[in-house]
Amino acid sequence: MSTSHHEPAAAPADHQARERDAQRNAVVELMRNAPVAEELAERFAAAGHRLYLVGGSVRDALLGRLGTDLDFTTDARPEQVRVLLDEWAETVWDTGIQFGTLGAYRHGTTVEITTFRADTYDRVTRNPEVAFGDTIEGDLLRRDFTVNAMAIELPKRAFVDLHGGMADLVARRLDTPATPQESFADDPLRMLRAARFVSQLGFTPAPRVVDAMREMAGEIRRITPERVQTELSKLLCGRHPREGVELLVETGLAEHVLPELPAMKLEIDEHHQHKDVYRHSLVVLDQAIDLERAADPDGEPDLVLRLAALLHDIGKPATRRFEPGGGVSFHHHEVVGAKMTRKRLRALRYSKDVINDVSGLVYLHLRFHGYGEGQWTDSAVRRYVNDAGHLLSRLHKLVRADCTTRNRRKAAALQRSYDDLEARIARIAEEEDLARVRPDLDGNEIMRLLGVDPGPVVGKAWKHLKDVRLDRGPMDHDEAVAELFRWAREQGIEVPEGR
């Protein structure tokens, strides 16, 4: 079966052969990695129902990356699906039953089974008027992209491709089963999903998809910030996030979901030379990801680092000043940028921890500059470590990634300076245990020595002793006590005689 709403050109013979091979491989991959699918299909067939592996599960099987989460569709109604699952699965849940979906877990595999859908949309919200369908054809037509609109009928193992999804997959092309305008009008979130799939899969959107995204970008305002945040996070954690970000900016979607990004496209003329801040930020994102992967090739993508790399210079447009003689300055753009980052991430409903960490990195990313002049004392190094706290390893990556100069000598000098700083941090940390910098006296001893009760005086004394600790390094007990009494006298606090 291979008709198509977007009428791709006839595939050459080698493409057809690749498609057939991919279909066979998908079925083999499915049966090898998901024997549960065969068990489930036999149960449904015995009860007189059809069952299809569908959507992203088929796409991932074709790409050789099938996971342990499988999506199915069936002509059975939810109540019938529940009966079939109850006697078979280790666990069953029905949180999506209003949309016709039940979930189950068996032998390490999670399955979601949804009754054929033939939804309609009011095109005001993205919430469909759920209607159950009777055919696989109607179910596949409502799906977002052709590469997600293929199915494998089980247990027959028959491949179903009604919209040229296989041809698009082989060509690494992202297109829609219906027209993109119809698809995006039904659910504008699909425009963000297009950018996300560009990042995750490395596919190229069809020209008509890009045109529709550009025409309909404003429709994304129908989508809740939480949904936007989820897609943006998945995009940034993909294999090719730069391409996804560029698609958001090119189509105008970024104007609505992350307007600070296109705002970094500052006009530059021959009299006021400075880097294109937007392009620079994309390079920093690429370089931060390279450093992230080099440090931990098998690790999970670091959303905080990637957000910080993308947003580290968003304060520049607001702080740009043209100086006499053609220079340009961006004084305190890290301070302004940290505030802007905090505001945008709050609007996107990110968690408090993510907001604090990303804005903290934006605030700290310039602190290193000036170190290369050799003016940093051990005290300054301690403060750098103390202020970065748990963000230190990410800050190392961000600062290194922020070096995008084409001047090889300058770039090498910057990297050598940061190598030297990291070596000093390691040396001082080994000597002083920087990870646990604390005052040389704790709160209880401060209260005992000063004869005060818990309150603001104790907190102020503790902070002062910590600052002294950062400046001077560790003190012995007598030195710390003497410093406490010296500070107390300055504050007008009575101290014991002879002290």
Automatic annotation (TrEMBL):
E.C. no: 2.7.7.19
Signal peptide (UniProt feature, chain positions): none
Species: Saccharopolyspora erythraea (strain ATCC 11635 / DSM 40517 / JCM 4748 / NBRC 13426 / NCIMB 8594 / NRRL 2338)
One Gene Ontology term from the biological process aspect of the record: tRNA processing
Pfam families, sorted: HD, PolyA_pol, PolyA_pol_RNAbd
Gene: pcnA
Domain of life (superkingdom): Bacteria
Protein name per its UniProtKB record: Poly(A) polymerase
SUPFAM superfamilies (alphabetical): Nucleotidyltransferase, Poly A polymerase C-terminal region-like
PANTHER family: CCA TRNA NUCLEOTIDYLTRANSFERASE 1, MITOCHONDRIAL
GO terms of molecular function: metal ion binding; nucleotide binding; poly(A) RNA polymerase activity; tRNA binding
Cofactor(s) essential for the protein: Mg(2+)
Taxonomic placement: Bacteria, Bacillati, Actinomycetota, Actinomycetes, Pseudonocardiales
Keywords for the protein's UniProt record, in alphabetical order: Magnesium, Metal-binding, Nucleotide-binding, Nucleotidyltransferase, Transferase, tRNA processing
